[in-house]
Amino acid sequence: MQNLSGGCELPGGRKEGMELRVTLGQKVLVPWRPPPLLFTLLVTEEHDGAELLCEAKLEGRAPKRGNGVRLDVSAPPYMDEQLCPPTQTWTEGQEVTQWCRARGKPEPVVTCHKDGTIVPVQQPWVVNRNHNGTYRCNASNALGTITRDVNVNVEYWDVNVGLWVTLAVVAVAVVAAGAVAYRLYYQKKKIRHYRLQREQQRLLALKGSSDGATAAPNGSAAGAQA
Fold first, then answer.
1. What domain range includes position 83?
2. CB 126 within 8 Å of CB 66
3. What distance separates the 2 farthest-apart alpha carbons in the chain?
4. Cα-based distances in Å from 48 to 34, 36, 69, 189, 209
5. For residues 102-109, average pLDDT
């Protein structure tokens, strides 16, 4: 940031009924007043490219614009918690990019390194568990350099082969036990059905024998009466 001082005057001096004002982009910096106008502006990065303009008007006439000045604002690198969060959590296999950024003009170059190895910042890269740790990030342009530390926590999950093998064995055992149980149930059901059929056949046979024995005496009695 820097203070910029200036003024707005009429050629040939002050004229009766004439007023001036100063604008910066869409903002009125100094409202309508008799000349000369003096102003002071605290220039920041946000003012880059804005037009500083002096306007003049006479009562009853439309305002006239002077030749504007386009501001060209340079700024050193700047990083905050939003541009480059000091603590970040990644997941193994995740693709990350632009995880640390900076503002400034000219646009700063951001580099981050860990254990002497430079890691990508602007280009996408895939995270693995070895990326866990503390990174030193630098943002540099022609006006200076700023440094920020970033702590990265990489979450990952190991595949327990022994557990999967155990689960597979248990699953096979459960399926096998289920098959054996079903087979025993089916055999018992079949045996009960067979025994029921045999019992029904035996009862039918007994009933038939009983009916025949009853019919014979009745037939003999009828023959004797004849």
1. 76-155
2. no
3. 168
4. 29, 26, 11, 91, 119
5. 94
